[in-house]
Amino acid sequence: MTRGARDSEVCPRTGAAGEANAPADPPFWLQSFDVGGATRIDVRPSLAAGREPFDDIMALACRVVVGRGLIIEAPFDPIPLRTVLAEQGFETFAERIEAGHWQVWCLRQREPDVAPPADFSATGGAPVWREADGVHIDVRGLTAPAPMVAIVRLIESGKHDGIIVAHLSRDPVHLYPELAERNWAASRLPGDADEVRLRLTKAPA
Amino acid sequence: MLSPVSLGGAKQRLLAERIPALFFGTAVIAHVIAWPALALVAHDLPSFAGGPGPVLAAVHSLTLGVLLSTAFGASLQMLPVALGHSAPTEGVCLAIFAALVTGAVLMITGFALSSIPLMTAAVLPLAGAVALYVRAITRLVRGGSGSLRWFILTAILALTLAVVAAAALAANYSLGFLPDHGRIAAMHAVLAGFGFMGLMALGLSQILIPMFAIAEPPEEAALRRAYGLAAAALAVALAGLGAGVATLTAAGAAVGMLAAAQHVRTMGAVVAKRLRRRMGPEFILIGASWVALLLALLAAAGGALDLLPETGSALVIVLVLYGWLLSLLTGVLQRILPFLASMQAARKQTRSLAPAKLVEGRALQVHLYGHLSGLGAVAAGTAAAVPELIVAGAAAGTIGAIGFAWFAVTVLLRTRSHLKAHALGRLSPS
After folding, report:
1. Sign of dihedral through CA atoms B233, B238, B239, B240?
2. What pLDDT score does A24 carry?
3. Residue A200 pLDDT > 80, yes or no?
4. Sign of the C-alpha dihedral, residues A55, A58, A60, A63?
């Protein structure tokens, strides 16, 4: 059984964060997507209960071999998650089924570009990855004060080189006093239209 | 030196600096009045069972002056920050503040002098303040989801009903139309104390406690259980009071204990997984407030079933107002004041200002010991009807309140000093 194109709001994602998120045509690979052989997870009940499903998704994603798929049912288009999945070798495609219900089709095309984070729980489920300009953390979609907690947790974990790039959905007013307490500074970076991106740096002692 | 960051949209979520300063400043001043007021009414407090006079004036110097001012200021500032919505306008906040203070002064004076015209005159500004506040908060939580929204909406419904009951009580002194003045007064107390202050405290705790402890927010299911139990407790207790069925009132208190236990368990789990290693004295106060809440509900259930001596009603008032709510709010203010000052410094794009640098630790120690010893002595003196113990407790509480004022003034002065140094730095040639 393969998945055919449907007439609904869709968003492709194949690269890194920062891509446009406009509705688009379904990609060609979706025509041959093996729905029956795909792993499925519905994260709506977990999110409704206030639980962070990121670890569960990544645990399933790690077991998906090249050529097989993963289908995620979510209450919104999980853009940060799709960025992480792209780094894990997945092509992804989000489709809005109805209000509060999105289906994300994920096809593993290749082996991961980078090793998956060893311990997602260390940052409260927020995706963390390393790029040339530092360690990135994406806390979009988390409710206050979880973004502040995830970033402070990353700072205190020491798993960075004194530079962290934080992707947020709004200005983290809770965070600034905690940064000041830890002698860290924040400066604004250009980001997506709906994003506040901050460069956090450890100030000299 | 730490570099500044543009707060962009955060500016809309932060109230103008003077708004929290007005609400919290009023609370700090009223706090220094509320404790010595207990000494003045020490002989009448143990047998207090309602009605205008100095005891009711003393009680309302705390409820209106400290508790309501703090709850209004904290919710008007913290809800926009937590929900990511624009804060109410400065004009609305100033109108709420002016009406609240005017009404509170008239009401407290009216109670102290047993003046019906003053009590009646206080109703209009107080009702106006509450109407504006309810409108502002409803707009903030509209469209939100989750238990926080339900805690806040139920809290402001209870506040509205409490004000309606208060207006009826004030009018009854002139018109005498209420069949049972005491029963409506008891419902007013439950609506204001447990309904508004209690639900607001439980709702805001789910944001503030993780923020203070730096911990993951609690699970939504646990919060919903606490909300369901608290709302049911309120409804059952009010039904018991309204119908004059003591067992129903006691059952409401018992369900309230379950709600409190659920809340304490949830918050305890949050704090246990915290990142902040060193906890300040605020967490001792918050812990004490949880103990006082459970004791207050136990005493309320006993009082409803006539199991307590004559001093039972007054003991419940002391445990609820001075034990639970005052301990909780002064603990919360110890974190909020330096935190807000630090956020305001970031708003002005100055060098970063660490909250810890604004805090005078000795002042907080004076407050902690003064408050806890004062509370213990006043509660014991009230229960045992020993006025001398109440006077001693009020004196200790006053010293604690002065310590708290010392802390608050220090935060203000050090923030101003930081901002002034920054302004001078900008003017000086580089």
Report:
1. positive
2. 63
3. yes
4. negative
CA B275 from chain centre, in angstroms, equals 26
- Out of A49, A143, A171, closest to residue B7 by CB: A171
For residue A116, the SS3 value is coil
Q: Which stretches of chain A sit within 8 Å of chain B by CB? A: 48-51, 124, 143-146, 148-149, 152-153, 156, 169-171, 173-174, 176-181, 183-188, 196, 198, 203
- The yes/no answer to whether this complex scores an ipTM above 0.90 is no
- Tell me the C-alpha distance between B74 and B193, whole Å: 17
For every residue of B359-402, DSSP letters joined together read: --HHHHHHHHHHHHHHHHHHHHHHHTT-HHHHHHHHHHHHHHHH
The tokens 């040639």 sit on which residue?
B429
Residues of A with CB below 8 A from B84's CB?
144, 169-170
Torsion sign, CA atoms A113, A115, A120, A123:
negative
Nearest CB to A146 within list B5, B216, B221: B216
In this complex, which of B84, B342, B355 lies closest to A170 when CB atoms are compared? B84
Q: How far is CA A148 from CA B282, B384, B422, in A?
A: 20, 48, 26
Q: Give me the percent of chain B exceeding a pLDDT of 70.
A: 94
Inter-chain CB proximity A171 and B214 less than 8 Å: no
Confidence class for position A114, pLDDT limits 50, 70, 90: low
Residue A37 to chain B, least CA–CA distance (Å): 33
H or E segment to which residue B317 belongs: helix B312-317
Please name the amino acid found at residue A191: G
Q: Mean pLDDT for chain B?
A: 91
Instruction: Give residues with Cβ within 8 angstroms of B179, minimum separation 6.
Output: none
Whether A175 has a pLDDT exceeding 80, the answer reads yes
Distances (CA, A) of B367 to B346, B359, B372, B404: 29, 13, 8, 5
Instruction: Determine whether the interchain pair B210/A149 forms a contact, defined as Cβ–Cβ distance below 8 Å.
Output: yes
Q: Which residue of B has its CA nearest to A202?
A: B2
Return all residues near B43 (Cβ < 8 A) that are at least 6 apart.
Answer: B387
The single residue listed with the structure tokens 């670890």 is A55
Q: What is the pLDDT of residues A57-101, one digit of tens each?
A: 887 887 788 888 999 999 888 887 888 788 778 889 988 888 889
Least confident segment among A112-116, A147-151, B291-295: A112-116
Tell me the residue type at B141. Answer: V
Burial of A139 (0-12, 13-18, 19+ CB in 10 A): buried
